[in-house]
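Let's practice the habit of predicting before peeking. Look at the sequence and jot down your guess about where helices and strands might fall. Then scroll down.
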Amino acid sequence: MFHKGKHDREKQLRFSIRKVSFGAASVAVAALFMFLGNGAVSAAEQGVPSTNGETQAQQPKDQNAQNGTYEGNTVATSPAATVETNTQPSKVENSPSPESAPQKVGTLDKKELTDLIREIDGKFAKGTYATKTEESVNNLRTVLEEARIALNNAKTQAELSQAHANLIVATTQLKTKPEEKKEAPAVDTTNGQPTVGKKTTNTEKASDSNSIANSGSRDERNGKALDANNPFRTDAATTNTDPYANQTYTAPAEDADLNTLVQKLKELDPTVENNTKISQNMDSLGDSKQVEKGAVKEITEFGGWTAIDGGVFAIARRTEEGVYPLETINSTLDDTVWLQEQAFDRDAEYTLLLSKSITRENRDEAAWDGSAYKPTGAAGGVTKNVAKYKGIEKIFTAYSSKEGSDVIVKFKPGYVGDSEGSKANYKIQVYSITGNQETLVYETTFDPSVAANDDKKIVTKATDGTNKAKIRISKTPNSTTIDSGIDHTTRKEFIGKREAEKLMAKPENLPNGKAGTFTSKPIELPKGADHYKVRISLADQNRTGMSYQAWDEKYSIPVTGADFSIAQDTSKVARNLLQRIYDKLKATESADKNGKTAQTIQEYEAELEKVRTLLADPAARTANFKQALQDLLAKQSGLKTDKTGLTNSKAELDALINEDPTVGKTEDTVNAYNTAKEAAKAEITEALKVLNDESATPEQVSATLEKVNAKKAALQKAKDGLIEGATTEEKAKLKTDADSLVKADTTGKTPKSIEAYNTKYEAIKAQLEAAKTEAAVVLAKGNNASKAEVQAAQTKVDVAKAELTKAAELLKALDRETAKKEITDAAKKATDAIEASARLTPEQKAEEKAKVAKVAKAATAAIDNATTEESVNSAKDNGKLAIEKAVAITAINAEKAAKEQEVDKNAKLSDDEKAAAKAEVAKAAIAAVNAINEAKDQDGVDGAQATGLKAIEAVTP
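Done guessing? Here is the structure:
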């Protein structure tokens, strides 16, 4: 913080001398790690237990804090050295050195050494060391046997650690035989999948420091092959015992069917979480490290994460009061603890700390750049990082080497201090590993207190706490005492680490700063990469974010298990699966669309096009592909079978069924029609089942349509085959007419006409019989007799009948009626003449008419009684003649009466004369009547009448 600058810390210069002691074992281990250099990584998720290369003696912080009072430190004044004791040590719990008190055998942790021995034995068994020189292999065997002895007989943890370190050194001293030019095969970290090596992407030589200028893409090891037999470099970094870190994708076979591909994509998670071991097991993993409450312990491995390049990192545990220890919060020269500056996730019991600051407490530890500690005068915000705190890394298996994947790193960063406005920044690196070659594919740095959103990452900032800003834990002034370059500054009345932590835990003091979040943008792993490595470290080795003048050891760059995610985005796998699904659906598109409705085909085609477009979109993710699959399958399953043809055909068949064309049709054809109709009705029932079945296939619809059409054709044929039957009247007429085809009765016919008739009848007799026979056959069919048949038979009967009628016309019957008519006409004529006579009185007229009627009646009777034409004519002629005679006689009588009246009226005549005249008239009349009666014909009658009239008229009295 700006308020903690050297301006406030160097008001007074005093000098003192620190005494530092080194343990022999610590020196040896330090030399070991110097020998190993940057190439060491622990084996199979197990770190190499690190001993501190420069173990400092207890610092001169002897103070007592009892009942809230401070006691001054007792400081020796020897100019050579001063040994200070501390009743409240704030030291990190380092791995024990040979000078440490022996541990009980029951508490020894033999796992690391056991695993390493087992690993090397396995390599001997597989012949891994066959390419190494005999001398180096024999040396390894010797050290291996010594390690076995130590494993069985060690009394302290230090002995086991030393054996472990010696064994690792022996593996690094393995030498390849000169005559063998080939590279030793790398340990298989591909889970059996083929890999393709990549050439190094950067071989630029840089300095050996761990500065930003010599990290990431500028690291000289970037792109170099891993030594397959160096467990620090390869084997120790594998994560074979971590199933979460080694999840791999098994692609469906090349000939996998559509359902297999669909199910695979449906089951595919958007991401594969590789860091579950820490994110879900932070506390249990912490418990395995046996860290005391309120302590900080250096470790080399945690949940498969190992210290980079043989370094270390720290794990801190909360105190009994629930606060993280004093080492994890910034304090300054005057022992001001800046409570609000601790901002990280404190929910877990443990947190990892990747950086350690060079402070007054550990001034003799090697700084990252090898520089010596200066108690004052450092540049603003500069606090150097301890050299061996290089960060953490872990190797994970690529989910799909064939398709590639995107890695997303996510965790909750924070800070534990602020050094004059400078907080410890994080650096995140990701390396792709192909075979035995590493390539940096991602690197970014960020300030956890600054929000960011760029092409590399999204950062939500951590925020200061809101409780009390600071507390004092000693009476040390904010100044240094330096004399002739010697730092004599002392800590005054320090209350002690535990009391300080209890004070921090008070509700008003409790640090409550909030962690931020870091989420990388998707980091592409190239196709062929079989593994990848993630590194997290301090970005600037000069800026740990803590005060370099702090009296206690200080750690920064917190990493907690909460939301610590190393996930692989599965979008590339999802893209490949969807592409394969799309290709298969395109291959069957024509068949899938066959027989489907136009609307659903259009929707399906549109969805296929959407998928094609999505597959070409580089930004599409697994969720997009899965949704697209869901939508596509919905449209595919939504392809509705086109039932239009079946619906129309059924409607046509329904209309045909609803007709009743059988009225007046022949019985047999009606029966055939009804049979076809019943079959059609049954097929309609089946068609309805298919029409109502949403899952009916085009094949089912097509088969049903074929059956409906067949039944429709059959019914139509039966309908067309209906024969119109003859009506009862038509059949009755045919029978009557046929029955009338018999020979005519010749009674009363003229002989000649009978002869002519008989001749004609014989000529048409065969025709008559044929017509009658056909009529009989047709009529025998009863209700099956068709109208056409009856009509045809009727036609023949009619023709025959016409011929027979024509023949009958030859028969001439006696013409009595004509004769009678002539009698009637003659009688009427006579009656009319009588009526018209002026000479007859009414009585006479009546009398004369009666006579004519009597004659006519007699004539008619005579005609009726005549049996021959001659007799008819004779009776007729006689009757007519008799009427004419009666008329003539009437005329004679009328003339006689008139003459007699004339005589009677002649006064000139006497009675005798009148009598004589009347007698003469009578005589003439009688003679006329007699002559008329004797006349033989009309002329005779007419002549006799005329003569008689003339004779009567001629009488002159």
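How did you do? The first helix runs from residue 6 to 9.
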